[in-house]
Amino acid sequence: MKSKSTIVQVAKRIGVAPSTVSRAFTDPGKLKPETVQRVMDAAAEIGYVPNHHARALITGRSGAIGLVLPDVANPFFPPLIRYAQLAAEDYGLAVFVADTAEDTKRELQMIERLSPQVEGLIIASSRLSDRVLQTIADRQPTVLINRDVAGVPRVLISTSKALAEGLHHLVETGHTRIAYVGGPARSWSDAQRHGCVQSTLENLGLEPYFFQAKSGNYADALEVSGEVEAAGATAVIAFDDVVAHGLMSGFRAHGLRVPEDINVLGCDDTLAITTHPPLSSISLDLASAARSAVTILRSAGRPGASTDQRFELEGSLVLRGTTN
Amino acid sequence: MKSKSTIVQVAKRIGVAPSTVSRAFTDPGKLKPETVQRVMDAAAEIGYVPNHHARALITGRSGAIGLVLPDVANPFFPPLIRYAQLAAEDYGLAVFVADTAEDTKRELQMIERLSPQVEGLIIASSRLSDRVLQTIADRQPTVLINRDVAGVPRVLISTSKALAEGLHHLVETGHTRIAYVGGPARSWSDAQRHGCVQSTLENLGLEPYFFQAKSGNYADALEVSGEVEAAGATAVIAFDDVVAHGLMSGFRAHGLRVPEDINVLGCDDTLAITTHPPLSSISLDLASAARSAVTILRSAGRPGASTDQRFELEGSLVLRGTTN
DNA sequence: CCTTGTCGTGCAAACGTTTGCATGCGAGAG
DNA sequence: CTCTCGCATGCAAACGTTTGCACGACAAGG
């Protein structure tokens, strides 16, 4: 099945040293162009393809990075996977994806499993403690996404500005009873959004109503919609779009109309246009986020790499059909 | 950053040969239990962790498999990723994920990139030609998902039975004008579903109406909903749930009610419960599919491995709120 | 007591690269 | 014409494992 041809076979074929063949692939500038050509031709002829592992063994670079995330099925992550992969490609890196199923133990376990076969780790929305994350980051290049741990490189996708903007819009259009339905408890994003709603609303002299969809999935949100309704909220900010979607379904089931009876503002803009009416949300630049993460990872563990990089990207408010 | 400790350091520490340490990790049965313990302790003390690449170099197994798919963002795939990973874990394998963005050239390119660093490839919903897939399968262990190429191991997730069942249900409840809205042209699933609708309906003496949502995404489906409506269909089968969802939105926008004015039956059951009303669909056992794929991959390229394995799993009909 | 077998361990040769150093060659400077 | 220098390439030593083979010790069988 697998044909195995090595660098020395190529070398023999055209009467050069193995090292020459190696250089033709890794540093062609050092060779006479004509030699490079001969090597390439011979390689193609016998179907030679460099052995990654032999190379990794000596150079220490495995040509792969790991992307660890809590739940592939959450619509926030697939785009992240795609963009991370695209970015990694530019550096000749392949990406391992690890789904932790929102389980802390499992997360740690996957990280340890992956650790020896990657050049670096991108850990998104980690549920691990700061201390543990620090330790991990000490062992190999690591960048966190949506987790703010001092001393470890991180990219944060912030929604503060856009959220405040959205809040102001709601207040301007006459809302005074505004609720926030939070997501996963240990999530940085949730803390950030929660805090933002709280401070913004207090500054406006309003009292926020807080609820929580424990795991942040559709079913949880559906369930919590009753409470929101009972509290008499006329507008609700959802932790993310799937929570927003769940809430909308709940409201509709109870005969509430969106946006006439209650306004809904989502977050992340992952499925906005597929709801009815189209969900107002906060759109994120995941492509930039992923690209930054990979770039930082690339430079981490290099001479003169700052260990405390912190990139913060702002989302932007997109008003659609669920707000007025 | 990266601490490097090797097998010989461990060996030295307790005065044994490197080979003994190696065996303690790979084949503990060959050693005195006490020796194994001593090795493990010493390894833990100095934080030794086996070097994957050195191991791969000599054994030829990289400890990784590749999962190639057209679009991570399509809700069909994330569960597949998760289950594939779960299954791979049992064999101590990590999984590379490659998103081809539905691009044939890119697909081939990713496969070639991944090929040298994996023990095998799972290619889902490939857009490549049979011939090319054959060639790929010749070079390394490969299993196809939802692609039926003779001579290369494959697992097919069939919906024929469930679809026929659904069709009969529609006819029994009085529908005579039934449409099928297809998805990506080169897709095996689409061909299979298209064929099933055609033959089943013809057997029942009805003439099917065929439409197509080119890329199979929400926007395409939304667009095609008008045509379906114009054709006077009273029931529509969608290639998958996202197409179904798009159609529903289209219908609603034009004032049609589901299911009163038109019935909708989806496929894949990826987002059934999050639509309104909840989408009737055909549920798939992705967990089994993924597990089979990994298992087949594992046994492929082994002595006595049949090259022509073909697993077919049947989906099951789930009637919810979009049919009557 | 010698043979034979088993068990636990050591030795050393791979695996396919990369890379620092050495070498030979021709060209330009003196 | 000799010296020096740079360029293109060869040589060989790593990188960290795994694994076939050999070896010694010890037990059991004759």
Describe it for me?
2 copies of one chain form a homodimer. Chain A has 12 helices and 12 strands. By secondary structure, chain A is α/β, with parallel strands linked by helices. In chain A, strand 8, helix 11 (241-253) and strand 9 form a beta-alpha-beta unit. The interface between A and B is large, with 50 and 50 residues. Chain A binds a DNA duplex (30 and 30 nucleotides) through helix 2 and helix 4.
What would you say about this model in short?
By secondary structure, chain A is an alpha/beta fold. Chain A is built from 12 helices and 12 strands.
**Strand coverage percent of chain A:** 15-25%
Average pLDDT of chain A, to the nearest integer? 94
Oligomer: homodimer
**Count of distinct strands of chain A:** 12
Bulk shape of chain A: elongated
Helix content of chain A: 40-55%
- Largest contact between chains: A-B, 50 and 50 residues
Main sheet: strand order of chain A: 2-1-3-4-5-11
Helix and strand pattern of chain A: HHHHEHEHEHEEHEHEHEHEEHEE
| Structure classification of chain A | alpha/beta
Number of helical elements of chain A: 12
Low-confidence stretches of chain A: none
How far is the N terminus from the C terminus of chain A?
63 Å
Radius of gyration of chain A, rounded?
A: 25 Å
- Sheet having the most strands of chain A: 6 strands, parallel
